[in-house]
Q: What sequence folds into this?
């Protein structure tokens, strides 16, 4: 093992960890910007707790559930509780992709784990009770995410089949999306959203905060995808940076045109979600597609966003305040299947579909089950009174902006 | 080629890319903070589209226009459309400065390209029509920036003459500044800015957002200047970090004293722009000046800011809401000339002046021409009614803060 | 000296520098979020000046006061003014911990130096006069911090005794905390805070801004602690990333439970400060404790936060708007002592206590002395009228949000 090369590869994993960490701030601000002022503290609180819960549960159980070792090809496995530094070479591990330290491996993976719960957080915002949500987060991050993650990244049965998901369009993003879908089905829409008079948009309270979130997510995605190369190999990381950036850019362009065509207006929230859609879409194949394919994948992902948002909202009447299902579930599926279309190498569309479906099925059933049990026992939805008052005062006794006029939103005044 | 050294050099280019990327968030929040509330969504929208347009056009055309290869010494050249990975050594290129991958080279340069349009965006804010601005952005980033960039960085005629511009005081910042100047001349001032009763300040709507922007820009500048070393050479990157930081700090000090002397008040917007002025000023010579010279360059740049802002506003009556011309044009010129004064090595003040003037002339004529053609054809300015209403509602049907009181600004109430 | 290894070690110091830099934005936004709207520009202004002052004074004097060289074991020393690149190997220095460049060493340390003044800034917010605060900052950063820092990091007498403080729980954080304590004792509480009717909470004006600050601080802490390894050694930096992250997470959990037990509410400001408490707590021993110990240290630190905040506020009646004394002083002491309890290796609780006490004594006396002299000469507190009006208008003639309703805060209306 060349010490300098080992050190630089390991350093890149650690720096990528830092970048993935800041995605949690990206999610927090994106979601905060897209919810009403009266639910801002609540969404920020959840995002603080999610990263704390995610790191600790992944340390105690998740990591060893996701990477059980052994012969591979399995459905489930467990390597015991907590972290245990391998012997020899000071914990430096020779993985297939290069060499890096056990601790670096753990902390990079741990930052990923909490992401899927964060995705759920945005979709169920403005009406879920805090404590049941935190219980869901613990179970989802500690058990569900690592099990399906193992199927591919832990050398499980999907990996053995040839399923490919480079950095987690399916394993991370669609998993979060399925959890979100289960949540919003069982929760129901926000009060006043779908009425006899029609569907009322409930705008988020701060577009600058949401924009900040999207840029931070893009920023962090360089670590999310770039770090998933699992080494600092110049050719691979360079390609991943190029495909990731161009897909995000193309996502913005796609959403720009399609949303203008649909709404005759330049809708910033669609462009923002278009960028995220492009990023989610390229994540499964960022290292195995050409630059041109990356542009196409991103353009399609971005174009899907306004269509999908309208589809969920108008036709399915599923209320998702931040568009998490469109961004993470729909574009996550698209990106995973796109590997079967554009991937350079031996990729099978059918295998990709099997991966998407099997992980989706497991995750949706798990999340639906947990939310259902919580619903029929402690309840998952705040009271109507609390919802009107806002979760900030109901759950936290604390407004987000104590000195700014606390009038009702224009929307609330309108529906009175 | 030592593999480990190649990997670490390449990794630094990629990490610098990530840092330069976040400068786009810095510009977005700085500009958003410095405009009125009613134009916030518009400025954020433009900044999202600029980065998307910048990356894609640079991939399609700009990169090969800026680095045409060949014998050098020329005025223009083109190496064909799109990216084409060089053969051999997996795309690893031995540049004069070290070795790094073709993809890393592209993506680092691509992040720079969009910057110049972002600079224009702030200056023309609050009154330019969206679509003409985006058309300008495409042409400016795809054609004008790469051509003048090639003159120096692409081994063109200015490079052959001995002109020096380390990371782009002229090639990036003053180019953006000249584009901004052309724009604000043709657009005219915001309604109510210059009246018979005198000049009315139109304060930005969120100083915290603007401050966030400046810190993020400084943060990103470590990649902008540090990455321009084009290797991770400890001595060079270390020096660049020191000179860059101290020039920014000295810029704050310069603006602090001069603005207090001029206004008898501690003007945060001047200190913020003083930091940026110091950063722009050191950019041309960050690797060839002493630590003491860096302090002097930054101190002068910061001191220039309040003088320049007042000069443009009061004497030229050119309306620049964010001070982009003072920061990027004036300090960009200062920084480039400063290499001829403080540069350790063979630098000629006259050659620096020729570089500044020739790039300025080309860029100003190009930008003026594009804006002029747009003005006489589709028009570049929103209607008076739209300007009063704000571009957020006029162009995007979306207020930035839907739940916060949408009263007119104090300034607007005052001029009624 | 292996060139590639030298380059990667040096690169990590530089990247860690960038991360520590952004902590200044973290402090700026945290403090801005936790103060009233009318004092926002003031706190941002101070944070801009602190980083500028910190870098320049550290360059001129501080660095050579902190690292005087020589035989070691001393109380004070000085290696002369300004930076002077060592001869040989282009300034690459073989430190005990590895090799990196002199410039990298300086700029990394310089970013640390300003931190301690930033900590003071939050505690004395909303009532201190700007100019005396800046004078205090100059003296504190230029003289006090480097002298006590030298005692350990500059191979001084505490280092010779075996005192251990990895990245500065005491040397940076408690130093800032002692300065803050001296300041708030001499300044007195904000008007209306402690009345005959009881203690009135004065909520900060923007919880999203404060949350942004905490995430940015955590982000930067990867550089603060990770960079303090002073090389990119995979095993050490990996461990530090794991212990740092888990302590922060455990800090959130500790504060969550204790604050719920105390207040029967989910208090986001406590969880935010709990995260910071966990980070401060792990800083002294991040490289010498086990993963489990890191969890315990963080959990205790987070649990201390609500207790300490209430203790300072209710029992000592010391008014600290942002909780800086609880986070940086109390958890800084806890973290330093924790090395004597949990540290793997030869650490002495008594020696840790001597370090805490001696540095605390020196710093408190220094800070108290400076503030006292300023108080009896130029005065350190704004007038009552200015305090009511807010420092933004009183000192800067500039509101933070000119277009948002500038009504008095709910709290102010209540006490009228």
A:
């Amino acid at each position: 093992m060349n010490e300098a090369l080992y050190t630089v590869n390991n350093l890149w994993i650690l720096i990528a960890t830092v970048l993935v960490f800041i995605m949690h701030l990206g999610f927090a601000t994106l979601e905060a910007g897209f919810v009403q002022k009266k639910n801002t503290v609540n969404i920020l609180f959840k995002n603080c707790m999610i990263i704390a819960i995610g790191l600790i549960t992944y340390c105690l159980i998740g990591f060893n559930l996701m990477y059980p070792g052994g012969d591979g090809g399995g459905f489930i496995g467990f390597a015991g509780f907590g972290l245990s530094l391998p012997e020899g070479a000071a914990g430096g591990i020779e993985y297939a992709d290069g060499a890096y330290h056990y601790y670096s491996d753990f902390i990079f993976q741990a930052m990923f784990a909490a992401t899927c719960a964060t995705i759920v957080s945005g979709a169920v915002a403005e009406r879920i009770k805090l404590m049941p949500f935190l219980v869901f987060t613990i179970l989802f991050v500690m058990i569900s995410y690592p099990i399906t993650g193992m199927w591919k990244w832990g050398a499980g049965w999907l990996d053995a089949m040839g399923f490919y998901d480079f950095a987690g369009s399916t394993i991370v993003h669609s998993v979060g999306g399925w959890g979100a879908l289960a949540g919003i089905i069982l929760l129901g829409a926000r009060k006043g959203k779908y009425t006899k008079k029609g569907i009322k948009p409930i705008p988020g309270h701060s577009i600058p905060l949401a924009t900040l979130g999207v840029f931070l997510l893009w920023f962090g995605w360089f670590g999310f995808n770039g770090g998933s190369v699992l080494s600092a190999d110049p050719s691979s990381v360079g390609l991943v940076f190029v495909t990731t950036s161009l897909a995000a850019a193309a996502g913005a362009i796609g959403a720009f045109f399609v949303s203008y065509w649909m709404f005759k207006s330049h809708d910033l929230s669609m462009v923002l979600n278009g960028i995220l859609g492009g990023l989610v879409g390229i994540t499964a194949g960022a290292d195995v597609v050409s630059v041109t394919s990356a542009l196409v994948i991103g353009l399609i992902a971005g174009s899907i966003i306004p269509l999908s948002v309208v589809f969920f909202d108008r036709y399915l009447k599923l209320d998702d305040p931040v568009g998490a299902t469109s961004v993470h579930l729909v574009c996550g599926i698209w990106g995973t299947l796109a590997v079967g279309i554009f991937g350079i190498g031996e990729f099978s569309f059918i295998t990709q579909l099997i991966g998407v479906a099997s992980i989706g099925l497991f995750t949706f059933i798990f999340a639906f089950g947990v939310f259902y049990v919580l619903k029929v026992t402690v309840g998952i939805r705040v009271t109507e009174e609390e919802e009107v008052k806002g979760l900030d005062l109901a759950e936290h006794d604390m407004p987000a902006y104590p000195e700014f006029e606390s009038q009702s939103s224009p929307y609330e005044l309108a529906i009175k």
